[in-house]
Specification:
The chain has about 300 residues and is mainly alpha-helical. It has one domain. It contains 14 helices and no strands. It has helices at about 35-40, 40-55, 65-85, 95-115, 115-120, 120-125, 135-160, 165-195, 200-210, 220-230, 230-240, 240-255, 275-300, 300-305. Helix 4 runs antiparallel to helix 7, helix 8 packs antiparallel against helix 9 and helix 8 packs parallel to helix 13 (about 275-300). It is globular. It starts with about 35 loop residues before the first helix and ends with a helix.
Length: about 300
């Protein structure tokens, strides 16, 4: 069956038509994270699917987004704060604890969901082509949406402790959220690509998520680490992007509630915080690049491996 026609020149021969193919994409190959802007509609659909199916057939529904972090906070507050006396030297420990937990929970959920995003959407990956990066990005976006109820609780509690918002504080919070999202996406892309072929990657991710809560000043003050460690160990600890994000959340929500004359906890950011922040930003950028490269490397065999 003819699909078209060729123009015939005077000699009766088919003339070759020159067509500009620069506007056409090679099938099955995208432009990585840049495709997010071109495929915004599909990204919205994936985000809507992720939020709609999270609490499907659940009686309480979105109430669980408030209940689970509330119970987690209560357990840490009672066990670490009172049984182990971890609240000593930290004024308004509930705000300090919950601000750190909110930041770490955002990282853990975004990182975990983006790691399994390809495997969880295997039906779509095997049947149709669309930029595979949309799945980890949508997972991070869904984690952010589920992070908002926890942030709302933190805002209410902070207001009860006398917190007043400032432009600098809001900016620090947004910077902390951006660091967490970039780190979670970079690590998620890296492990999502590997996880399709080697499911052991998911176990590594669970270990990282378990350690992240304790490897940042959430249940304790960073000064305790400074007392026990020094040199490159302390610098490595403070350069952790999650640690930086937690301290930015502390500075936004906890610091304004601490009296100026309180001597239990040092005010302001840790020493050399600007240097640590710069290192954390560079680390997130490098991890994003490595994650994208690794993801693209394994993307070629996603359909076969699934």
């Amino acid at each position: 069956m003819a699909c078209g026609f060729f123009p015939i020149d005077e000699a009766g021969r088919a003339a070759v038509t020159t067509i500009d193919l620069s506007e056409y994409d090679v099938p099955g190959r995208g432009r990585g994270l840049a495709d997010v802007f071109r495929w915004r509609y599909l990204l919205r659909l994936l985000v809507r699917k992720g939020t709609a199916t999270r609490y499907r057939n659940s009686v309480l529904g979105w109430t669980w987004s408030y209940v689970k972090p509330g119970i987690q906070f209560l357990m840490y507050f009672l066990v670490v704060g009172y049984i182990f006396n971890g609240n000593r030297g930290i004024t308004n420990f509930p705000i300090y604890l919950f601000a750190g937990l909110v930041a770490v929970n955002f990282f853990n959920e975004a990182f975990g969901n983006s790691t399994t995003a390809i495997v969880d959407n295997r039906a779509l990956v095997k049947k149709i082509y669309l930029p595979r990066e949309l799945f980890p990005i949508s997972a991070v976006t869904v984690a952010f949406i589920h992070f908002l109820p926890q942030l709302a609780i933190l805002l209410v509690v902070a207001l009860l402790y006398g917190w007043l918002p400032t432009f600098a504080g809001i900016g620090a919070m947004l910077l902390g959220m951006a660091l967490i999202a970039a780190l979670a996406l970079g690590l998620g892309l890296f492990f999502a690509g590997i996880n399709v072929r080697y499911r052991d990657a998911q176990n590594f991710v669970e270990i990282i998520r378990m350690v992240s809560t304790w490897a940042s000043p959430v249940l304790y003050a960073w000064t305790l680490v400074a007392e026990k460690a020094s040199g490159w160990v302390l610098h490595l600890y403070m350069s952790n992007p999650v640690t930086i994000a937690v301290e930015l959340f502390h500075w936004t929500f906890w610091e304004p509630t601490v009296p100026v004359d309180a001597v239990e906890q040092p005010h302001g950011f840790p020493p050399h915080f600007t240097v640590y922040l710069t290192v954390a930003v560079v680390m997130c950028a490098v991890i994003l690049i490595i994650g994208q490269f690794t993801f693209r490397r394994f993307e070629r065999t996603f359909a076969q491996d699934l």
